[in-house]
Amino acid sequence: MHAPARIAPSILAADFARLADEIAPIEPFVDWWHVDVMDGHFVPNLSLGMPVIASLRAVTDLPLDCHMMTTNAGDYVEALRDAGADQITVHIEAYPDPTDVARRVHDAGLRFGLVLNPPTPVDAVIPYLTTCDVVLVMSVNPGFGGQSFLDGVLSKVEHLRKWVDSNGSGTDIQIDGGIGADTARLARDAGANVFVAGTAVFRAPDPVAAVHELRRAIGDKR
């Protein structure tokens, strides 16, 4: 049984000079804001940090889903919380045993999740799913927006959905990378229930219409 669908636009694709204006018309129709934090080490790109997160928190009531594409995400848990984060996801590739960082995130009162890159087998996260509020399957190689969807990751989503349902877990299954209407439908069929879309929303001629198109594609009538 699929969990309720959520759409989490990635602000990485927004115009940062107009961030408040970019998110305002979309906010009534989406569920989370996805915030990509990159350190230039774990991935070959740099992106936003605490000042932008705090600025975003000041203009939205939606949950801030902070995806930490960094080698040392655990060092910033309290700073992220204080900036306004609601959820922190860290890469299993950076934390092969994420037990301690999961505890730290939960002790800070935030939701915790694990992320796995396209080459990483799903078995890497299975032993730790009981610590996860969300697990994020990357459907592109992380670091840059606008990449094409890698459909080979759908088998991971299916595996995770079977685990979540068979264990009676409420863990969300999120997918990120190359998500548009067609790929969101494939991911929904495989078992995903949280959809990160950046370019498909913020670079669309009509971002609100793009969100509605995503909802129709995943069979959500909101």
Count of domain modules: 1
Compute the number of helices: 8
Helical coverage, percent range: 25-40%
User: Can you tell me the CATH architecture?
Assistant: Alpha-Beta Barrel
The proportion of residues in beta strands is: 15-25%
Q: Which CATH C-level class is it?
A: Alpha Beta
Low-confidence stretches: none
Question: Quick check: average pLDDT?
Answer: 94
The total strand number stands at 8
Q: Can you tell me the CATH superfamily? A: Aldolase class I
Radius of gyration: 16 Å
Largest sheet: 8 strands, parallel
CATH topology: TIM Barrel
Helices and strands in order:
Layout: E1 6-9, H1 19-23, E2 33-38, H2 50-57, E3 64-69, H3 77-83, E4 87-91, H4 99-107, E5 111-116, E6 134-138, H5 154-166, E7 172-176, H6 181-190, E8 194-197, H7 199-202, H8 207-217
Helix pairs in contact: 2-3, 6-8
Task: Please provide a written account of the structure.
This protein has 222 residues and is of the alpha/beta class. It has a single domain, classed as Aldolase class I (TIM Barrel). 30% of the residues lie in helices and 18% in strands. It is built from 8 helices and 8 strands; from the N terminus they run E-H-E-H-E-H-E-H-E-E-H-E-H-E-H-H. It has helices spanning 19-23, 50-57, 77-83, 99-107, 154-166, 181-190, 199-202, 207-217, and strands spanning 6-9, 33-38, 64-69, 87-91, 111-116, 134-138, 172-176, 194-197. An 8-stranded parallel sheet has the order 1-8-7-6-5-4-3-2. Strand 7, helix 6 and strand 8 (194-197) form a beta-alpha-beta unit. Helix 2 runs parallel beside helix 3 (77-83) and helix 6 packs parallel to helix 8 (207-217). The longest helix has 13 residues, at 154-166. It is globular. The two termini are 18 Å apart. The model has no long low-confidence stretch (mean pLDDT 94).
